Amino acid sequence: MTVDLSPLYRTAIGFDRLASMLENANRLESAGYPPYNIEVTGDDEYQITMAVAGFTDDELSIESKQNELSVSGEKSETEDEQKFLHRGIATRSFERKFQLADHVYVKGANLEHGLLHIELYRELPEALKPRAISIETGKLIESDA
């Protein structure tokens, strides 16, 4: 199913990034490797957990740039020749990208037991946070007519 977003481009100003995200989400991902979870861990806090068994922290790279988080793994070549009867643990290189909403930042990352945990948080600037407006009461000024 193809969705035509051209009316959105014609009538909405400044939403081109949203339309691009919708178009990209409509495409099928090439592979499900490596598998991952996205978890809500608290108010405005998230965690991405990726199964990266066999990768060391030196072989993994995390980059956050312009509302996009990119996680890649480049497996170093092993010189010893191993003979496998069955090879079920993937050792191929990968790159996985995630679109981040405005004001979502990476807090940190941790590799433990073959799982890469990436901590994210959303921090709204003070100008965007809701604020209460006080209502003042007073006497109306009477005009001389």
Task: Give a description of the structure.
It is elongated and about 100 Å long. Strands 1-2-7-6 form a four-stranded antiparallel beta sheet, with no helix packed on it. It has two helices and seven strands. The protein folds into two domains: 1-30, no CATH class; 31-127, Immunoglobulin-like, CATH 2.60.40. It has 145 residues and is mainly beta. The chain has helices at residues 6-11, 16-26, and strands at residues 36-42, 45-51, 60-65, 68-73, 94-99, 104-112, 115-122.
Sequence-ordered SSE layout with sheet pairings:
Blueprint (H helix, E strand, L loop, with lengths): L5 H6 L4 H11 L9 E7 L2 E7 L8 E6 L2 E6 L20 E6 L4 E9 L2 E8 L23
Antiparallel strand pairs: 1-2, 2-7, 3-4, 4-5, 6-7
> Which assembly state applies to the chains in this document?
single chain
Radius of gyration (CA) equals 24 Å
| CATH structural class of the largest domain | Mainly Beta
Describe the biggest sheet?
4 strands, antiparallel
Give the name of the CATH architecture of the largest domain.
Sandwich
Number of helices: 2
User: What is the CATH topology descriptor of the largest domain?
Assistant: Immunoglobulin-like
Number of strands: 7
Q: How many discrete structural domains?
A: 2
Main sheet strand line-up: 1-2-7-6
Element-level helix/strand string: HHEEEEEEE
Mean model confidence by pLDDT? 82
Kindly estimate the percentage of residues that lie in beta strands according to DSSP.
Answer: 25-35%
